[in-house]
């Protein structure tokens, strides 16, 4: 392979591809440690209360059962910062599905069967699980997630809206959504005296090691965390989950290696979910389409365990110029499982509501929705006044319109029909923050002409391993096949989690700097290399996390064509097209995969995915892939992803922005807007299932 093949942006194949297709790549449940046992959780059968007693005698009598851990006898742990990890530490039950016992047995089947024999008595308490408009216990938090202010307001939004010539006042609803990665949350734990080793499915091994060391009161150098291959996460593995702690507790009690693979039906209750969001949007505009007022109010739920506030009003602070704005969050603490991160948290539901409302405003103004967005393009970030490091949203809209054939569109709803099918097209904008966090890396030049690059990054299926090798090869001026990249092990130089679209931007910065330093040392070195090679180290602390005077975001434009069956209410997406401005694209092959995969996830959000909280049972009704419908191959149309390669010098040495999440942000809104264009009716609650479409069509007749 020549050096030209390693230039950033080249479509290099995944370095671990052969390992994965041959089964050589090991995931968390696939480490065959001698004497390994298996664990199975017992979920709480009440929505709120306390464990009054546990009868595990029948379970313990089953041949092959090694231990049953209960709140009364489980190992005592230090109190964690994340209260969702305080499992089996006390008898409280904060929500249905909370772990109240754990069975350890010789085989997975025995552990499962024994868990069913555990009898738990409860002192039940009244509970509340429904998020409603105007809830009396709703409060306004000081901060939403990611340290964002709960409220941002300037000008006179109420007065400006009342005075606007054209007004839109609409409410949108996004249901709870679930991550459901292919590999469930799994940990294999092993104790060797006072040394703990875990193989876990996590988006961040460095964080997992810190949490285990703190909770088990161990020095960090006594804990090893391996997550070399991870079968997806979509945010749910961004922070440690109960499987990590429970497996370590079980291995300690059984004095054997133990694997805990959380059953899929339990995942919605223990690994987080996208919290439901209720949106009210008020847009006011003059006759020229310029926004005079923008108000985005969001209500969401959190658990009684910890506060988690989906930052769904935050994107409105970025998108459009207006002299009068209010964005505010409200949250209600209910007896529900703790919500958590899910792909593009905040931006995904927030931009669905905002971009749908903008489409409604375009209709009220009788203006092309692309032109309306361009008309309101800001010079600076509206919420902060900072200049953008780069913002090519207008170029994305125009390039996407050209590729999609937008100019051929008849703007009138219900203008195209094929028998019982109504056809329509829609557009939506997208944004996601671009940032980096500190990371460390080392690079070593070896006498045989190869290079070893090490950092505790995590590849959750994005191709990060390959892109980091490309960054190293490009910086060193060598061929890709001469670089060996080591990631996914806590003994490697520490690095942040694979989340928030910060992974490659952060790890790549450290890899770039280590390799740049190594290249300088090699240039100054005379004679042959030492037998153990020549080393360089980089730590981006103080730079990656430094305050910057710029607003840094990725942007994109989504286009969708749909067909809606007027007889059945079925919606079929025929085309999806996205154009993105996300800095310098580091690998065109893996980037296109990321963009299209996220767009397909957005298709699921729009049409098939949704969860409901059963008020009588106090749990999610859709708890597995039989009832929670992710898109299948037959649901996925022609999907195109394109990009504008930006030259943004205010990001990192590679000029890259995260791309894992921008692809989902605008897809649902583009599809919803296309459904309205096809049918002339607006459905404001996701997903757009046939029953809702038929009801809307019937009401419009």
Structural notes for this entry:
By secondary structure, this protein is an alpha+beta fold. Helices cover 26% and strands 24% of the residues. Strands 3-5-1-12-9-10-11 form a seven-stranded mixed sheet. The chain has a five-stranded mixed sheet with strand order 7-15-14-13-8, sandwiched between helices. Strands 16-17-22-23-26 form a five-stranded mixed sheet, with helices on both faces. A hairpin with a 2-residue loop joins strand 16 (416-418) and strand 17. Helix 9 runs parallel beside helix 16, helix 12 runs parallel beside helix 13 (503-524) and helix 14 crosses helix 16 (667-679). The longest helix is centred in the last third of the chain and has 22 residues, at 503-524. The model has no long low-confidence stretch (mean pLDDT 97).
Would you report the number of β strands? 26
Distance between the termini: 64 Å
Mean pLDDT: 97
Strand content: 15-25%
How large, in whole angstroms, is the Cα Rg? 26 Å
Give the biggest beta sheet: 7 strands, mixed
Which stretches are poorly predicted, pLDDT < 50 over at least 5 residues? none
Structural class, judged by helices and strands?
A: alpha+beta
Strands side by side in the biggest sheet: 3-5-1-12-9-10-11
Helix content: 25-40%
SS field, number of helical segments = 17
């Amino acid at each position: 392979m020549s050096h030209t093949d390693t230039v950033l942006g080249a479509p290099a194949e995944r370095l671990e591809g052969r390992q994965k297709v041959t089964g050589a790549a090991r995931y968390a449940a696939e480490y065959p440690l001698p004497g390994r046992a298996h664990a199975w959780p017992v979920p709480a059968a009440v929505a709120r209360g306390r464990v009054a007693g546990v009868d595990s005698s029948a379970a313990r009598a089953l041949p092959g059962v090694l231990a049953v851990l209960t709140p009364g006898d489980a190992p005592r742990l230090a109190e964690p910062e994340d209260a969702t990890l305080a499992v089996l530490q006390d008898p409280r039950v904060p929500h249905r599905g909370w772990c109240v016992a754990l069975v350890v047995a010789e085989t997975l089947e025995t552990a499962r069967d024994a868990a069913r024999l555990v009898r738990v008595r409860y002192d039940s308490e009244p509970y509340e699980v429904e998020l409603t408009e105007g809830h009396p216990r709703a409060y306004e938090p000081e901060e939403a997630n990611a340290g964002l202010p709960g409220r941002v307001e300037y000008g006179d939004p109420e007065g400006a809206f009342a005075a606007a010539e054209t007004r839109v006042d609409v409410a949108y609803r996004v249901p709870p959504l679930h991550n459901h990665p292919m590999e469930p949350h799994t940990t294999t734990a092993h104790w060797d005296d006072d040394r703990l080793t875990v193989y876990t499915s996590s988006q961040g091994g460095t964080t997992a090691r810190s949490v285990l060391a703190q909770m088990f009161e161990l020095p960090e150098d006594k804990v090893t965390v391996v997550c070399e291959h991870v079968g997806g996460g979509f945010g749910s593995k961004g922070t440690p989950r109960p499987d990590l702690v429970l497996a370590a507790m079980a291995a300690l009690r059984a004095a054997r290696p133990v694997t805990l693979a959380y059953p899929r039906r339990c995942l919605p209750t223990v690994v987080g979910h996208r919290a439901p969001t209720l949106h009210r949007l008020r847009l006011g505009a003059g006759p020229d389409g310029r926004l005079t007022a923008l108000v985005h109010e969001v209500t969401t739920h959190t658990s009684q365990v910890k506060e988690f506030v989906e930052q769904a009003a935050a994107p409105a602070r970025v998108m459009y110029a207006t002299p009068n704005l209010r964005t505010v969050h409200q949250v209600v603490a209910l007896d529900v499982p703790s919500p958590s991160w899910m792909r593009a948290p905040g931006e995904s539901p927030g931009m669905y509501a905002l971009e749908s409302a903008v489409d409604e405003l375009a209709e009220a103004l009788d203006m092309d929705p692309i032109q309306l967005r361009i008309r309101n393009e800001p010079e600076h970030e509206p919420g902060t006044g900072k200049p953008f490091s780069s913002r090519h949203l207008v170029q994305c809209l125009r390039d996407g319109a050209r590729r999609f054939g937008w100019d051929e569109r008849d703007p009138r709803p219900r203008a195209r029909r094929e028998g019982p099918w109504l056809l329509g097209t829609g557009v939506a904008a997208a944004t996601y923050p671009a940032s980096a966090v500190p990371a460390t890396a080392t690079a070593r030049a070896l006498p045989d002409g190869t290079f070893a690059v090490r950092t505790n990054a995590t590849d959750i299926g994005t191709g990060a391993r390959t892109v980091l090798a490309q960054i190293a090869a490009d910086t060193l001026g060598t061929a890709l096949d001469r670089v060996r990249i080591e990631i996914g092990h806590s003994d490697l130089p520490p690095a942040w989690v694979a989340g928030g679209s910060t992974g490659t931007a952060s790890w790549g910065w450290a890899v770039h700097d280590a390799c740049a330093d190594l290249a300088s040392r090699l240039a100054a070195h005379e004679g042959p290399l030492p037998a153990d090679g020549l080393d360089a180290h980089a730590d981006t602390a103080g730079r990656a996390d430094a305050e910057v005077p710029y607003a840094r975001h990725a942007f994109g434009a989504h286009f969708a064509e749909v067909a809606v069956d007027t007889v059945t209410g079925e919606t079929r997406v025929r085309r999806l097209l996205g154009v993105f401005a996300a800095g310098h694209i580091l690998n065109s092959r893996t980037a296109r995969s990321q963009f299209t995969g996220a767009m397909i996830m957005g298709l699921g959000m729009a049409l098939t995915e949704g969860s409901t909280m059963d008020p009588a049972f106090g749990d999610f009704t859709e708890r597995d892939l039989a009832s929670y419908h992710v898109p299948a191959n037959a649901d996925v149309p022609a999907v195109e992803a394109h990009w504008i390669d930006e030259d943004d010098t205010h990001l990192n040495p590679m000029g890259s922005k995260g791309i894992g999440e921008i692809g989902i942000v605008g897809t649902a809104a583009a599809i919803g807007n296309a459904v309205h264009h096809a049918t002339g009716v607006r459905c404001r609650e996701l997903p757009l299932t046939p029953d809702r479409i038929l009801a809307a069509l019937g009401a419009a007749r």
